[in-house]
Amino acid sequence: MQIEYRVNTPVTPQEFTRLLNDSFLGERRPVDDPECMAGMIENANLVVSAWDKDRLVGISRCVTDFHYACYLSDLAVHREYQKAGIGRQLQALTQQQLGPRCKLILIAAPAAQHYYEPLGYEHNDRCWVLDRDKPIR
C-alpha cells in the first residue's frame, strides 16, 4: 500500500462525506446535510489528506491562524486503513504546516479518548460548547 499525502489539495464534499462514512466519524458529523458538508470542507483553511491512488483514505481538516491555534476539526481514516500510521502521519504533517508556537487543539470522539495522550497531547477539561440553537444569554 503506497499512501500519498497532500497539503491543501482540493477534496470534494462527496469525497469528504464518503470518507467520514467509511470511518467512525460519520456517526458524529452531519453527513446527511450536503450543504453543511460542503461548507465544512470548502471553508477549512488547512487540509492534509491521505490518498491511495485516487481514493481519499484519510484527512486532517483544520481551521487555524497558523501562528497560535489550530483547531483540528476532523481527523478521519478509512476503516480499512486504520492502524497503519496514517492518522499519526496526518497529524505530523498538519503540525509541520504551523508556526513554531501554534498549538493543535481538538475535541476527541468518545471512542478516541485514549488515542491522543500517547502521541503527546495533554488533556484539557476546559472546553466549552454552545450549540447554535441555544442563544447567548
Automatic annotation (TrEMBL):
| Keyword Metal-binding included in the entry's annotation | no
| UniProt keyword Transferase, yes or no | yes
**Residue ranges of domain N-acetyltransferase in the record:** 3-137
Classification via PROSITE patterns: GNAT
Task: Give an example GO molecular function.
Answer: acyltransferase activity, transferring groups other than amino-acyl groups
> Which keywords describe this protein according to UniProt?
Transferase
Provide the protein name. GCN5-like N-acetyltransferase
State the species of origin: Alcanivorax nanhaiticus
